[in-house]
Amino acid sequence: MTTHTQQAKASGTFSLGGDLPVTRLGFGSMQLTGPGVWGDPADPEEAVRVLRRAVELGVDFIDTADAYGPIVAEQLIKKALHPYADDLVIATKAGFTRSGPGDWRPVGRPEYLRQQAEMSLRHLGLEQIGLFQLHRIDPKVPLAEQIGELKLLQQEGKIRHIGLSEVTVEELEQARETAEIASVQNRYNLADRSSEALLDHSEARGIAFIPWFPLATGELAKPGGPLDALAERHGASPSQLALAWLLRRSPVMLPIPGTSSVAHVEDNIAAAGLSLTDEEFDELTAAV
Ligand SMILES: NC(=O)c1ccc[n+]([C@@H]2O[C@H](COP(=O)([O-])OP(=O)(O)OC[C@H]3O[C@@H](n4cnc5c(N)ncnc54)[C@H](OP(=O)(O)O)[C@@H]3O)[C@@H](O)[C@H]2O)c1
User: Fold this and answer.
1) By alpha-carbon position, which residue is closest to atom 41 of ligand 1?
2) What's the gap in Å between 203 CA and the centre of ligand 1?
3) For the chain, which domains are there?
4) Which of 215, 228, 246, 247 maximizes ligand 1 atoms within 8 Å of its Cβ, making it the mutation to test the pocket?
5) Within 6 Å (CB) of ligand 1, which residues are found?
6) Are the C-beta atoms of residues 271 and 253 closer than 8 Å to each other?
7) What pTM did the predictor assign?
8) Residue 115: which residues within 8 A CB-CB, separation 6 or more?
9) What gap in Å lies between CA 75 and CA 24, rounded to an integer?
10) Ligand 1 atom 5: the closest Cα is on which residue?
11) Burial level of 152, CB count in 10 A (0-12/13-18/19+)?
12) Would you tell me how many other CB atoms lie within 10 Å of the CB of residue 54?
């Protein structure tokens, strides 16, 4: 049931893989861990409240990864939200090993990707993962083998859709020779548009584009940042403008802003209801 409190719904819907609808403004869970995306967050109870508040406000698309913590973010999602609402889609990832804070090393060997899919099913308490993303392509393993294993997991019903992360147009097309790809997740925000070609390519093919660092890790949300003056004029927060710009940029855009605080999750989700005029969109595009 959609109530007036479900603000996120105003961002509209996108169908992942053509058959799995999600509300476009989602939530990213990487901030719910310790420094360097390692270990527990400073305030685990607040992390639980953040996740519950996001869902209360209409978010039904949550991005996570086995590598966040590792395991910490997935377990918090389960603690906060299990048993899950029927419409909740959890997108997790595999393909990065962790050896310490800030340390990320790709491993894409098929048996490892399979193990991590099984671990994510267990840690999240799911029978099927809605969207399973290859966190990074492992340059040491043929891409067809990495995607081939994900396709097997899909055929076995363990994952519903396959996504990629940090890829080029060429890599996306190469992966599509092995399996259908429902989404790509690359760094993209007002201040970093280096993945513009991938975005346009994805839009033309109905593939979701999930921009990570949508707030440029908070740089676009900070007081005194580049969006301050425009935000004041608009009666919105800088973070809301940055997210409204992303939502307006493409109908396949699914922003997943991350935060460890309830106040910020409320601020971010209110961006769903913010519509920009053509002039405002152009002004923002030119501002940063
Ligand atoms: N595929 C990949 O390789 C990859 C890489 C990185 C991230 N991701 C995904 O993308 C998601 C989003 O990225 P992110 O969380 O790192 O960066 P982000 O969304 O760009 O920014 C998060 C930062 O902004 C701050 N912030 C959030 N809302 C704010 C607000 N309303 N006002 C002021 N500050 C605010 C947060 O601090 P507070 O906690 O204090 O609010 C945090 O420091 C992640 O959670 C993760 O799911 C994927």
Assistant:
1) 259
2) 23
3) 4-215+250-258 (3.20.20.100)
4) 215
5) 28-31, 63, 165-166, 185, 212-218, 221, 237, 239, 256-261, 264, 267-268
6) no
7) 0.97
8) none
9) 24
10) 212
11) middle
12) 27
Ligand 1 pocket: which of 259, 260, 261, 274 to mutate (most atoms <8 Å of CB)?
Answer: 259
CA of 219 to the centre of ligand 1 (A): 10
Query: pLDDT tens per residue, the chain (288 residues)?
Result: 445 589 999 999 999 999 999 999 999 999 999 999 999 999 999 999 999 999 999 999 999 999 999 999 999 999 999 999 999 999 999 999 999 999 999 999 999 999 999 999 999 999 999 999 999 999 999 999 999 999 999 999 999 999 999 999 999 999 999 999 999 999 999 999 999 999 999 999 999 999 999 999 889 988 888 888 889 888 999 999 999 999 999 999 999 999 999 999 999 999 999 989 999 999 999 988
Our CA dihedral for 81, 82, 85, 89, rounded to 10 degrees, sits at 80
CA of 221 relative to ligand 1 center, distance in Å: 10
Unique residue bearing structure tokens 């961006």:
271
Active-site positions? 68
The protein residue whose alpha carbon is closest to atom 32 in ligand 1 is 221
CA of 195 to the centre of ligand 1 (A): 18
Say how many Å lie between the CA of residue 210 and the centre of ligand 1: 13
State the angle between helix axes of 196-205 and 169-176 in degrees (0 to 180), rounded to the nearest 10.
30
- Residue whose entry in the numeric block shows the structure tokens 């961002």: 11
64 phi and psi angles, rounded to 5 deg: -150, -170
